[in-house]
Amino acid sequence: MGSYFPSLLEPRRRAERALLAVVQEAYILGVSTRKMETLVRTLGMEGISRSEVSRICGELDEEVNRWRKRPLEGAYPYLWLDATYVKVREGGMVVNHAIVIAYGVRETGEREILGIEVGLGEDGAFWTEFLRELISRGLVGVRLVVSDAHLGLQEAIVTVLNGAAWQRCRVHFMRNALVRVPRGAQSEVAAVIRSIFAQPDKESARSQLRFVVDQLRPKYHRVSELLEGAEEDLLAHMSFPREHWRKLHSTNPLERVNKEIKRRTNVVGIFPNRNAVIRLVGALLMEQQDEWMSGRCYLSVESMRKITTYQQQEKQLVGCRS
Q1: How confident is the model at residue 3 (pLDDT cuts 50, 70, 90)?
Q2: 236, 311 Cβ separation under 8 angstroms
Q3: Is the dihedral of CA 45, 46, 47, 53 positive or negative?
Q4: Is 76 left (phi over 0), alpha (psi -120 to 50) or beta?
Q5: Please, what sign has the CA dihedral across residues 177, 180, 184, 185?
Q6: What secondary structure letter does DSSP report for 98?
Q7: Angle at the Cα of 229 from the Cα atoms of 171 and 164, rounded to 5 degrees
Q8: What is the dihedral of CA 87, 91, 92, 93, to 10 degrees?
Q9: How far, in Å, CA of 33 to CA of 135, rounded?
Q10: What's the DSSP call for residue 299?
Q11: How far apart are CA 255 and CA 188, in angstroms?
Q12: % of the chain exceeding 90 in pLDDT
């Protein structure tokens, strides 16, 4: 049977080609799911040879890896770090692997995907190595890092990006807080906590947070303790221009990208190896990067110029409080 693989791949977008390549590679290695086998047959790709699959995958891998290792130019005041998990065949077993991704905003206001890596877990060593790789490629000027409160990631941020503020993702925090509250009271507690973030400035938010802590302590002391300990990390974004707050308080601005990653990786189910994960997710992120670069700036140049002024004002306020 002749191979339909190249004719199916070549006219397609990069991410579609990568998905088909990963599916076919998994299929010939015998790790595909029923869904993938059905997809392969539907596309008429059963006749492809291993050498042809290897050639196609090699071309895509070279393209993605060249993009992953590109030099980073200019300063990136804002950095988001996020992770998701996929299943990978390794050593005869199926093992969960973390995909970690770095997104940044340049000093010019443009959003950019800075890096992607795959590993066995999100421990401090893995995150530290990932961040050091970004530094070696030219990452500079980071003022604020936005992420969830994973301990290994926090340790890596302190180690590698010392001097940058850390914003704890508000969405992840709210989930962590509400599991400490009976279901019937969750909406009430959530509304009280949200009142903190509705304040017009950081000092007002700080005062409201302490009021809410006192208000919650009698009935929900576990939530009040969590909130009290997270004060600086939840309000860090308020030390930056107000125009940026909505996009800085959580990792939610990346939700659409992350959903697309999950949609495509769910099609594969079990990846045949780590390279296949990087190939598919890297191709998706390259296309997202192209879309961002051809659109409007994520944050205006004028508002980005205010960052230094706002940070100077914050230092003055800290000096007055001390």
Answers
A1: very low
A2: no
A3: positive
A4: beta
A5: negative
A6: E
A7: 70
A8: -40
A9: 39
A10: S
A11: 26
A12: 56
Distance set, CA 94 to CA 16, 87, 254, 274 (Å): 24, 6, 28, 12
Structure tokens at 317: 């306020």
Angle ∠(233,304,131) on CA atoms, nearest 5: 55
Residue 114: phi and psi, rounded to 5, are: -95, -30
* Contacts of residue 192, Cβ cutoff 8 Å, sequence gap at least 6: 212, 215, 216
173, two tokens: 């925090």
Tokens 């905003």 belong to 105
Chain centroid offset of residue 294 CA: 21
What pLDDT does 10 receive? 44
Query: Mean pLDDT, the chain, as a whole number?
Result: 85
Give the tokens for residue 198.
Answer: 């509705």
Region of 89 please: left (phi>0), alpha (psi -120 to 50) or beta: beta
Please tell me the distance from the alpha carbon of residue 258 to that of residue 64, in angstroms, as a whole number.
18
Q: In this predicted model, what pLDDT tens digit does every residue of 108-118 receive, in sequence order?
A: 999 999 999 99
Mean pLDDT of 218-247: 96
Return the domain boundaries, the chain.
1-167+251-322, 170-239
pLDDT at residue 154 tops 80:
yes
d(CA 168, CA 237): 9
Maximum average pLDDT range among 28-37, 154-163, 247-256, 263-272: 154-163
* Helix ranges (DSSP H) in the chain: 5-9, 14-28, 34-42, 50-68, 124-136, 151-160, 170-178, 186-197, 202-216, 221-229, 231-234, 245-248, 255-268, 274-294, 301-304, 307-321
DSSP-derived letter for residue 182 is -
- Whether residue 173 contacts residue 194, with contact meaning beta carbons closer than 8 Å, is answered with no
Sign, Cα dihedral of 258, 296, 105, 230: negative
Determine the pLDDT at residue 7. Answer: 43
